[in-house]
Specification:
about 60% helix; Peroxidase, domain 1; alpha+beta; four-stranded mixed β-sheet; single chain; about 180 residues; 4 strands
Length: about 180
């Protein structure tokens, strides 16, 4: 669960990046950090282990991230370490990404289908969603073999179910209630 502390740090860092006109560069770093964390159990354990002395943690951060991140992003990581908040970095990355997409008028959309969609299909879905929501669309295609056919589109907390299962369920409900 994302807490208010994570939200405050993400918002403050986001505002700082905007003020310094480095939002695009730092956004790339945020995506890198999130990817590093997801792909490394060792890094996840390191970030959540507050028993490691501060100097050691700073050295590890320097070895892992200094050459991979822009200076502002790296300084932010060191700041989080100094404040004892490195364990929040995953949540901060999620919130930062949300703030970035909102500021750029981009809507993140998860498109789930039973088979991998072709680029032309995704492009058509994006065009319809762009028309409906009046925002640029950042698609996240997913494959779920449990869906018999059709697609499910998740926008924020709302799911638009155009799967065969969803259609059959709506048909069943109409029969029961008519």
């Amino acid at each position: 669960m994302i807490n208010t502390t994570s939200r405050r740090y993400a918002q403050a860092f986001f505002d700082r990046c905007q003020d310094r006109n480095e939002l695009e560069l730092v956004h790339e770093d945020i995506l890198k950090i999130a990817t590093f964390i997801k792909s490394s159990n060792e890094l996840q354990n390191f970030l959540s282990n507050e028993g490691i002395p501060s100097k050691t943690r700073q050295e590890i951060l320097k070895n892992v991230f200094r050459e991979k991140l822009k200076p502002l992003s790296f300084v932010f990581l060191l700041f989080l370490e100094k404040k004892g908040r490195l364990n929040l970095i995953s949540h901060i990355c999620i919130i930062f990404q949300e703030l970035y997409l909102h500021a750029k008028n981009i809507l993140h959309v998860k498109i789930t289908s039973s088979i991998e969609l072709k680029n032309t299909q995704i492009t058509k879905i994006m065009a319809q969603l762009k028309h409906k929501f009046k925002k640029d669309i950042k698609p996240e295609p997913c494959v779920d073999p449990k869906i018999l056919g059709g697609i499910k589109i998740k926008v924020g907390d709302t799911i638009y179910d155009y799967s065969f299962q969803g259609e059959l369920e709506r048909f069943r409900e109409k029969l029961v209630h008519s």
